[in-house]
Amino acid sequence: MVERRAAAVLLTGKDGTLSGILTDTDVTRRVVSKELSVEGTTAEDVMTANPTTVTLEDDCLDALTLMVRGSFRHLPVLDSGDAVVGCLDIAKCLNDAITRLEKMEEHREKQLGNGTNKQLEAAAMAMALAGRGGGGKHQTALVSTLMQLLSSSGGNGEDGGSKLPSVGSMLSGASSTVLLSKEASILEASREMAASRKACLVVGENGELIGLVTFKDVLGRVVAKGLSPGGAILGEVMTPKPASVTPDMSLLDALYTMRDGHFLNLPVVEETR
Questions:
Q1: Which CATH number fits domain 178-261: 3.40.30.10, 3.10.580.10, 3.40.50.10680, 3.40.50.10490?
Q2: What is the pLDDT of residues 157-195, one digit of tens each?
Q3: Which residues contact 238 (CB under 8 A, 6 or more apart)?
């Protein structure tokens, strides 16, 4: 996984049919946090067996809905004979959707001037929710809205000039963020990350953001290098000074930041005065 920079690997049986999927999140939650031996644990022991799949003929928006509703970021793709042909990544699906929406907006603006941003708003909110996980009616409604807007070519509507939601509005009611010092062990962090299903923010003595540790980091910088989760500390494997945004930034701008920077985790930090 590390060599190919893959966040997930598909596992097949002797007959070549799909038997499971293993992600970097699974490695953190089911191996590292439980102190299992990496060498002594097989992929079959910790994989998600019989995962949800789609076929080559399925619509990409239906696949996107499945991923958001199921709170997972990867979706195996099978052909008509149930042979594995690939794996969809939710970030790519959503980025493709954003590109499609942007083209629609450009066309609308040429016809109607500065029009609505509701299409992009829906996509941005869906992206944020997909990364947050948790499911629920709110997610389902947003994805349904995104799908409707993608397939719609209607006009502005009466509230076309409404303000885009902020990053802070999405954090309201969300589960608590994992905050640890750089001296905390990877084992401690993995347990917190497993419970919250979130990346870990590393903070300094005054509570300022100094680093970020993701599930990908645990896999690539700890497990793959044979480090001891109990002995390695966050300061040794974190990404220092990660990009961040403020709560008042629009979801759309935050989404662009993530897309342009090619990352899936974006810390939100209050400005200090």
A1: 3.10.580.10
A2: 444 444 567 888 777 766 678 999 999 999 999 999 999
A3: 182, 202, 210, 211, 212, 213, 217
